Amino acid sequence: MLSIQQLLQQNADKFQYYTFFIILSATYFLVWFFNKNFLTSSTKKIPPSPPKLPILGNIHQITNLPHRGLWDLSKKHGPLMLLQLGCRPTLVVSSAEASKEILKTHDLSFSDRPSLTTFDRVFYGSKDVITIPYGTEWKNLKSIMLHKLMNGRRVRSLITSSVEDETALVMEKIKQCCLPINLSEILMVLIQDITCKSAFGVKYTESEKGRKFLKGISESLELLFKLVIGESFPWLAWINKVNGCDSTLNRIVKERDEFLDDVIQENLDRPGTMFRGETFIDTLLGLYNGQTHASSITKDSIKAILLDVIAAGTLSSASTIEWGMTELIRHPDVMKKLQDEIRGIMNGRKCIIDSDLEKMQYLKVVIKEIFRHHPPVPLFFREAREDVNMMGYNIPARASIILLNTYAINHDPVAWDEPELFKPERFLNSSVDFKGFNFELIPFGSGRRICPGLAFAAASIEHIFANLVYKFDWALPDGAKPEELDMTEKPGIAVGRKSPLLVVATKCYF
Fold this sequence. Notes:
Layout (H helix, E strand, L loop, with lengths): L3 H7 L1 H30 L24 H12 L2 E6 L2 E6 L2 H10 L11 H6 L13 H14 L2 H25 L4 E2 H18 L7 H19 L2 H4 L5 H5 L2 H25 L10 H9 L10 H32 L1 H15 L7 H6 L1 H13 L5 E5 L4 E3 L2 E3 L5 E5 H5 L43 H18 E4 L13 E2 L5 E2 L4 E7 L2
Parallel strand pairs: 2-7
Antiparallel strand pairs: 1-2, 3-11, 4-7, 5-6, 8-11, 9-10
Helix pairs in contact: 7-8, 7-19, 8-14, 9-12, 9-14, 14-17, 14-19, 15-17
């Protein structure tokens, strides 16, 4: 008589098949039950949905560029669309009208962020101002960001001490180079230098330890974008262990934590006891040690805030300037008009200062059009804290992720004339701005959870962009024509160019 072990060995294939079938059936039931729960709790009327597959839901319809795939779906199913991404119902918002409902009319109701395990792992249990749940702790961190780190006086000081100095150094480097340059790489290093100098007082691109830290941040952001399987299908989370994503993220998180611990300890151990607030870490450690009047802050929160500043500040600002230079090269008439304005105002002077930038009205509309055409972060997440009736639909609390597709909103034909064209002139006689009050243009978000670094990011981008356009004429290598420039996007939290922007500075004006 065969033993149980022998029977299992002889029927291993059948056993695995039946096991898989049972798990699949149970999974399908759970997803169906979850969907049923969502539908019944939605008081009869829910937003329209595209047809979905069992278990997968609509995830197969999301392309490797989600902002574009979701935009295409919204054209068929409307500006408020319900998708099923694995286990998670996801409400996709794709119009200015719908974004105003979320970010103004019902802002408090939608002021939470969804709990995502991968973000928790990267941002110290969501102790940063971007991902932390709405509540007292978030209010405390936001107050620190706005009033201690990013107030008007501090932003002006950082522009003078970091942005102007580092930009001038890069302009000199470009001036000395007669070969085609990788402008994408130059811009990333420049933004990293500015951000690290503001945060730590040190340019970490100049040390091996610092470069490893910055590379780890870029890798972790790429992984965050990829680690969707474990979030959408919890029963398939093991895939991230098999494909190495989990181990890679664990390594990056460990290395980053060790780096920030070392930096904090170095600052705590330096001679003197007072933190004068010259850098972000200086200010935060002053709060941590109780040397300034403010609510308490933990060491993990300090690390999470510093990570916010580095991660959010570098990638989005670099990609915005990169796309801006791309569009100017593709549109020589816009480039010439902008250069004429800047060079006329500067009248041969070398250094661009704040009072000069204030006079450059065409520069401002060009930057608005860059933000519209290439939003630095095309997808924002929110979550309902309570049941909301919106545009005739009921959205139950905590039942779904709210996904604002700023790319779709910025290209909404109801709000914009010829939205697919790069046309800065659309803003010349328009009061529309990107500061969160016009819901057809929200590159930094809006409402309570608008990006607290908006002023610093916008000022840095404006200054760098003006210098690049003022001080050089630009062309593509090997006589390539502007219309031949590759415009393929690279997937990610901040959508940059897939191929680096290789250009030649043909003439220098300083």
